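User: Hi! Is it possible to get a structure for several chains at once, not just one? Here's what I have:
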Amino acid sequence: MIRLSKKVEYGLIAIRHIATKPAGEIVTAKEIADTYGIPYELLSKVLQKLTKSGLISSHQGMRGGYALARPPVEIPVSVIINAIEGTRQAIVQCMSEGPQTCTVFTVCTIKSPLTKVQANIERAFSTMTLSEIV
Amino acid sequence: MIRLSKKVEYGLIAIRHIATKPAGEIVTAKEIADTYGIPYELLSKVLQKLTKSGLISSHQGMRGGYALARPPVEIPVSVIINAIEGTRQAIVQCMSEGPQTCTVFTVCTIKSPLTKVQANIERAFSTMTLSEIV
DNA sequence: CTAAAGTGGACTTGTACGGTCGTATATTAT
DNA sequence: ATAATATACGACCGTACAAGTCCACTTTAG
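Assistant: Yes, the chains can be modeled jointly so their relative placement is included. Here is the combined structure:
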């Protein structure tokens, strides 16, 4: 019915994996990729996005890798998703585009009721923090 | 972040349109397509699915069209979505496939926590009935 | 009989996603 | 210094799927 992207899946698995390690321990992308059998290159991209948005910190070079940048309790799942997907999208097109680009704007009837549903979904993702999925 | 398909969008708009009419009044697909500027053929397919799942009743032939099959209060939005999308999917792959086809099943760590999120989403869609979006 | 409606299969097309490759850059161990 | 090991990042490919289109058929009111 509604599906998270592979990237988000991988991101959640990865950041959870990192979170299970003792604080400050550095984990390589390769370790994660091997552990869960997910493509290394793709995972790397995801980890880079998580780095750019400040959820994890990266350490380049030999003996490098990734570590959590903040305590897991402070990271809601929704933040992880947004970090990976970038453009946050609404459940119906009208809601994420400006009114002017929506061809059926004047007659679109389902937008406002679905806002409630949208809010519920957002809440479902934002009330759960990383600490709960470790 | 998560998006309903166009078909579902059209389906919701359409069934809402039908629901606003006096009970028993018949509405043609063309009328709906014209009113909201959505492609007629595509809308037809959607309406056919809604018909097959018994949410609306169809009347063939001249002066035919569609009407609600049940009172709107009894129709949760989730039922409409399921009718149109057919295969109900989970937010992560592991959850909708059998365990044997999931390559990372034994090591997949995010499945069970996400079940909670999934349940929340389901609830968001199933607690809202058609009568609320009219 | 015919016009207006639904039914339904086949087809095209665009695009986003998952995945891959290659190269550059940074850091550390020796 | 240099080799080894890691991230960073852009370019590319292939496929699946969503969205949309086309067309032939059936049903029924008038």
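Residues 76 and 129 of chain A are 4 Å apart (CA to CA). Chain A is about 50% helix and 5% strand.

User: Great, thank you!
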